[in-house]
Amino acid sequence: MRYRVEQRIETLAQNAVMKDGRMDASFSIRGITFSHWDFDLTRNWSSDWWLAEAAMEAEGYKAALTTFRQELSRVVPRISLISQTYIDFPLQPFLIVRGGEQVGFFRYTVKKDGVGLMFMEGHEKALERLLADSSIPEEFYYYWNDVVNAIGYSPKLLLMFSAIECLTRISRAEKDWVRLEQILGKELKEELYESRGIRAVG
């Protein structure tokens, strides 16, 4: 069966591929056409969205969607590398329709504002204690601020490593392994920093 799949992509990159004198901003690669959402020359790039479209042969809509998103998972990170700007598709709306049908599956997602957390008297006391404690390097707080603001598991994890490691540094090149074990515990420290752990040295 043949399916048409459309996926919105949110990005700050402005699709400006206009080959062969065409007036539309679009290009095709690996069977997927990427166009700038609602683009025309009078309004230019009036949105921060692209549209990815493809026709997929598959046994069912789930298989078609899986294949399509696997291709996007290869292409979009490379666009991110080249454009060096924000881009996201997994949390964006998509539509899939079987050929010859007037009914399809549509998932529409809407961004919601974050929910606030209370900063109360106990937090104020913690703030006073942290400001009075000169044993914690300022660098730690800068890293942790970035951890809280970062989007995505990988950047948060890498920033957490940097924050923790600045607490355990004897010198720029040397870590206090005893202190690191006190913070992480023996098992987690060995899993992360020894043998083939993700922070293993040497």
Fold and architecture overview:
This protein has helices spanning 61-83, 121-132, 138-149, 153-167, 177-184, 186-193, and strands at residues 2-11, 26-29, 32-36, 49-57, 87-88, 94-98, 104-107, 169-171, 174-175. With 202 residues, it is an alpha+beta fold. The protein has 2 domains: 2-107; 121-193, no CATH class. The strands form 2 sheets. Strands 1, 2, 3, 4, 5, 6 and 7 form a 7-stranded antiparallel sheet that branches. Strand 8 (169-171) and strand 9 (174-175) form a beta hairpin. Helix 3 runs antiparallel to helix 4 (153-167) and helix 5 (177-184) packs across helix 6 (186-193). The mean pLDDT is 87.
Keywords:
single chain; 202 residues; alpha+beta; 2 domains; elongated
Q: What's the SSE pattern?
A: EEEEHEEEHHHEEHH
What profile does the largest beta sheet have? 7 strands, antiparallel
| Beta-strand residue percentage | 15-25%
What is the overall shape? elongated
> Kindly, what is the distance between the CA atoms of the first and last residues, rounded to a whole number of angstroms?
52 Å
Oligomeric state of the chains present here: single chain
| Helical content band | 25-40%
Q: Could you say which structural class the secondary elements and strand pairing correspond to?
A: alpha+beta
List the topology elements.
Blueprint: E1 2-11, E2 26-29, E3 32-36, E4 49-57, H1 61-83, E5 87-88, E6 94-98, E7 104-107, H2 121-132, H3 138-149, H4 153-167, E8 169-171, E9 174-175, H5 177-184, H6 186-193
Antiparallel strand pairs: 1-4, 1-5, 1-6, 2-3, 3-4, 6-7, 8-9
Helix pairs in contact: 3-4, 5-6
